[in-house]
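## retry 2 of 3
previous attempt timed out at serialization; input unchanged, resubmitting
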Amino acid sequence: MKPLLSKTTKPFIIYVLVILLMSIPVYYFIVDTIWQNELDEHNKTIAEKTAYEFNHLKLSDEALNESIKLWNSIQPETNIEKLKFNSRKRDEYFTIEKAETFSTEPEIERYRCLEKVVYINNQPFLFTVQTNIEESRETIAAIALNTAFFFAIIVLGLLVLNRRLSAVVWHPFRNTLEKLKNFNLNHQIKIEFEKTDTTEFEELHQSLSKLIEHSISVYKTQKEFTENASHELQTPLAIIKHKLDILLQNEDLTSKQYEIVEDINKALTRSSRINKNLLLLAKIENSQFDTTENILLNNAVRQSIELLEEHFYQKNIKVESSLEVEVFVNGNMSLTEVLINNLIVNAIRHTPQNGFIDMKLMNTSFQIANSGTGKLNEDFLFKRFSRLSADSNGSGLGLSIIYEICKFQKWKINYKFENSQHIFTVDF
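## retry succeeded, writing output
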């Protein structure tokens, strides 16, 4: 995962690098062209000034020829040659490369040259002048170093600016993100977003406010429906249950009728249990329980074991428990009892005939392990109405209730399958 700023900064830096690299030959071409134009002007000025000085001396033809010879011998980069007639229509500018003959280590140098016809004593002379041009390698190296220097400044500046701008510009976004992380739909408290002068953030806040308001409204409606449905079903279910009990006591029922009524009674009992569990889940989600009670877990576990002793006997399950250490926790007594009962019932349900259940109570956790034949599907372990065994008597809500109780009391429930044992651990 990369921050948004790094994703935008990296392409920008690459773009700047490419542009600066492309600019090096462009800079070189521009600088070289300007330098050649300046040298052309310089050479032209030398030629014109030299002709002017010779004319100003007003030498005889013989003295002029001697002076030109002397000039050519002491000025190696210039040459004056007499012409019989002027056949050139314009000045010629060109560039040549030659070795420096006067140097101990001759190097190839570039020269900008001018051939221009000048008139001295009204006679045409071809004036040639050569001026050394800065080496191209040195020019390119200087431009490259200059480009690299400014690229380093740009990158450093971008990194510094990004950090500072990130702290200022993205502050409303981070504040909004933090509030969304702490938002809990169960509490049904609307989020008050920070006012900002950034249009995009304001639009985001307005959209989020509408979404949260709609979610809270839908959640309230769904919660009220669940509560009302579960609560209102209790009375008719109880009446039907009572009527079925009376009907079962009727001596005029045939064996076939008795079986039908018994099946109806079992289905009704399961429906009533599901209804009570759904109502319990709704109350847990609505935070309708106090979690400040000081509970001695040892007694709660012993009571659950005694209550379910008949079930152990029916499947010939060997029960081992380690409850010697007194463990006190803060929570809700009734919810904790439901949690322990559901854990033990779940262990009984997934323990084969003649199996075993081992319970350990420690200072910071309660662990229950039972023999089993295969690992439970962890993807559906705490999902409502998920079927993890062939037992049709369960409501499919036992583990969901365990998970919600742990979440409500800020405990953690973990499951693993080791050495042919299902192991559930509740960390307080």
